Amino acid sequence: MSEQKTTRDQPSLNVGKLIRWIAGILLLALIGWRVYQTAFIEGSYGPDTWMRFIIAGLIIGGMYSLIAIGYTLVYGILFMINFAHGEVMMLGAFGGYFIFELLASIKAPSVSDPNMNFLNAYPVISVLLAFIVGTVVSAVAGLLLERIAYRPLRKAPRLVPLISAIGASIFLQNAAQLLFGPQRRQYINPVILWRGTGWSIPVGDTTVLLTYTGTLSLVLSALLMIGLFLVVQKTRLGRSMRAVAENKQAAALMGIDVDDVIGKTFIISGVLAGAAGVMWGIHNGLFNHYVGFLPGIKAFTAAVLGGIGNIPGAMMGGMLLGLLESVGPAALGIDFQLKDVIAFTILILVLIFRPSGLLGEALSEEKV
Amino acid sequence: MRTTIKNGIRFGAIISVVIIFFHLTGFSVVAANMIGGLFGNVDKNTALAQLPTINLAIVISLIGLIAGGSASKNTKTDSWTNAIVSGTVAGAFSGLFVAVFVYLIGIANFLEVDLRSYLPEIGPDNIDYLLFGGKASANFLYLGLLTISGLAGAAFSKGIIRANWRKQVQADSVQSFNAFIQKPGIQKVFNNKIVVYAFLAAAAFLLYFLPTKWGPYWNFIMGTVGIYILLGLGLNIIVGLSGQLVLGYVAFFAIGAYTFGLLTAPEPHAIGMNFWLAIVFAILAAALTGVLLGLPILNLRGDYLAIVTLGFGEIIRILIKSDMLTDFTNGPSGLSDLVQPKWLGKTFNDVNYFHLTVIFVIIAIFIANRLQYSRTGRAWLAISADQTVARATGINTFKYNLLALALGAAFAGLGGALFASRNQFTGPEDHILMVSINVLCLVIVGGMGSLPGVVVGAFVLKGVPELLRDLENYRLLAFGALLVMMMVMRPEGLWPKGRPEMETLYYRKHPKDSPPDGEVQS
């Protein structure tokens, strides 16, 4: 932070700042005009389509938020980009998938249907089990990652753990490919959670489908976020996490086992990523060993968007990114292929105009 | 004794996980095949059923030796019993865990449960082989083999440590080498210009004649290594010298390749520009992109810069691929039939391409070397050490950072143009994030800020994997694991850069002023 303060104090740079702001306002005006054009003048999409975009954005945004919290927690404590976090999510998706397959192969004959399997006979338990196993797999992966790849590098220069994380990410991706094969797999959900079924909400003259899987994802991510917030704010562990993020040495002097807290942070972020992975599988269906990569990068973008180190920021950033990504291409009247471009452009713009993120970063003074 | 046994169990667990992982990914079978290749009891057409089981036993025993050795080395006490017990326990426990695993897959095989749709490498044939030809006693075989090899590994490793053999050999060889180097006669030879020129001439001779001998395949591989050296030199200026982390280096590579491609390809524009002119334009376009990207973002903090540039690289790739720009860039199908250079009316073949790459690499190394030791290079050094202090001493950090980015981008542009021209094709899939990561890794594996390090890194990351074609599927896996191990064990790189150069140079010229502890030597 000190660095940026000095830049701000230099009067010579104020002209540059002025130019930047003028450019920003012009850009905003341009975007506004473009949105006005496509949404109201051309009217290419009706309100039902907008509704669909918003729902899809919120659902994907919930998953981004869960992953982004993992980035933000780790960055807040260790000041490192946990590049392998997306892969942790991928492992969670595999965990949930295998549980579904296992349960589907167990017979549970009932009176009405002798061919019933466990998955459809006890769908609530099955989904719960899938989430539990997925989160446990991811939590273990996160913990091992920290132990093997990051802990020995606690005092190394900042590039070193980043490279280690990149290495771990490549390793996990390829290990999953070699173990489980490169083909795409599909989650076979219980019948009551079938993809493409849901409630129809009337909007205007048509209806918009709110899928069960999407609702499950959204509600569950909201619950997990509330839970995380309570853990961080109300429990002893949360207090020690905040203390370690603030100042490791002082925390150690107050009797906090710093290594232990860091390990638990990785477990928590692994749990959230694993839940996001299972949701991804249940909601989107198709996945393979590569599934974690893009959501991982997007989620980091979301964390930066909200202000890194800031947990509410990560939640908001994820939701915002999901929304913008799904509504953006339509609102700007451009190709849907370019939704990733929108995500990254937003990131660049936010960093240029508000480098500390929308809600401000919450990092300690020792390393900024 | 209890800690010794605990230590052994820990190592046993780790090693058993490794062996099970090897079994599940099919690596054990590949390794057994390779052992067979060494012994000559296997040829390329040997089916899995005919593969001798002794090969698997050798693979398992080798792993057991390593397990026992590392477990005994970790005991840190000086007693033979502790070392032996630890190694044997490690071997026995890994054997136990693996035996349980093998038992389970054996049962699965017996019940004819097909695991292949979940674990593709665990088919009935593989399981048979991993059970030493379907023997019921395979569990005991694993247990016995691993226990014995663990014991042997422990004894062997302890023996070596006891005899202080390795340390001694290392110390002796290093000392005698240093003494040899420092003899006045030898120094004279090394400083003799004729000798230096002779070395250079020999190197040039080799570089000139080798490509004609080793065929197109190796020319291609070595050409790729050369291009990656160019990229590494460029990124080394940005990351190694000025200390800014850029993860989207591929963007400049793509700009170079596409500028070259669009100017020379018959489709979609048919400009048909000359090779040499197109290369210049590619370099300029990449450098310009570097400046334009750098202007708004260079004030950002390290990690933000990394993620912004990463995003920028992805944006460039997606834009190239998108339908919106298909008329301009040919979209996902890419640009083909790019122009090849001509010299005296002759079109380049693979040997000439290799020579061209070498010439560019030599020029790039020359430029990078001169830059590093110039005033600009010292400014970068200061910035990477501490930006605030550098600014306080009157260095215009923004200007120098921008210069570094532009120069690095220019190198990438050259590399991209060469790459596109040699392949006569460039498409969006040539410019994925993995390229940036590879280049960054080669800079770091070689040693940040060190020019020989870049060359070593490029050979290690792009050349060596080509030698291991048998292990193609496992290449990236090993690459990831090696990166982690390298960062944990040797983060400074294979060929780290020396101390800040001006300081050493000064002390070499004025030996009287050098610090009393004699610490500062190049």
Features:
heterodimer; A: mainly alpha; two-stranded antiparallel sheet; 14 helices; 4 strands; B: 522 residues; mainly alpha; 2 domains
Please tell me about this protein's structure.
The complex is a heterodimer of chains A (368) and B (522). In chain A, a hairpin with a 2-residue loop joins strand 2 and strand 3. With 368 residues, chain A is mainly alpha-helical. Residues 1-11 of chain A have low confidence and may be disordered. The radius of gyration of chain A is 22 Å and the shape is globular. Chain A has one domain: ABC transporter involved in vitamin B12 uptake, BtuC, CATH 1.10.3470. Chain A is built from 14 helices and 4 strands. The longest helix of chain A is centred in the first third of the chain and has 32 residues, at 47-78. Chain B folds into 2 domains: 2-170, no CATH class; 224-462, no CATH class. In chain B, 73% of the residues lie in helices and 2% in strands. Chain B has helices spanning 2-25, 27-39, 53-73, 80-110, 124-130, 138-162, 165-182, 184-191, 193-241, 250-264, 275-297, 302-321, 326-329, 350-372, 375-385, 387-392, 397-423, 433-446, 451-467, 475-489, 501-509, and strands at residues 335-336, 342-343, 346-347, 425-426. A two-stranded antiparallel ribbon of chain B has the order 1-4. In chain B, strands 2-3 form a two-stranded antiparallel sheet. The model of chain B is unreliable at 518-522 (pLDDT under 50). Classes of the chains: A mainly alpha (368), B mainly alpha (522). The interface between A and B is large, with 57 and 55 residues.
Give the SSE layout.
The complex is a heterodimer of chains A (368) and B (522).
Chain A: H1 2-9, H2 14-42, H3 47-78, H4 85-105, H5 118-121, H6 123-150, H7 159-180, E1 185-186, E2 198-203, E3 206-211, H8 212-234, H9 236-246, H10 248-253, H11 258-284, E4 286-287, H12 293-306, H13 311-332, H14 339-353
Antiparallel strand pairs in A: 1-4, 2-3
Helix pairs in contact in A: 3-8, 3-11, 3-12, 3-13, 4-6, 4-7, 4-11, 4-12, 6-11, 8-9, 8-11, 9-11, 12-13, 12-14, 13-14
Chain B: H1 2-25, H2 27-39, H3 53-73, H4 80-110, H5 124-130, H6 138-162, H7 165-182, H8 184-191, H9 193-241, H10 250-264, H11 275-297, H12 302-321, H13 326-329, E1 335-336, E2 342-343, E3 346-347, H14 350-372, H15 375-385, H16 387-392, H17 397-423, E4 425-426, H18 433-446, H19 451-467, H20 475-489, H21 501-509
Antiparallel strand pairs in B: 1-4, 2-3
Helix pairs in contact in B: 1-3, 1-4, 2-3, 3-4, 3-6, 4-5, 4-6, 9-14, 9-17, 9-18, 9-19, 10-11, 10-12, 10-17, 11-17, 15-17, 18-19
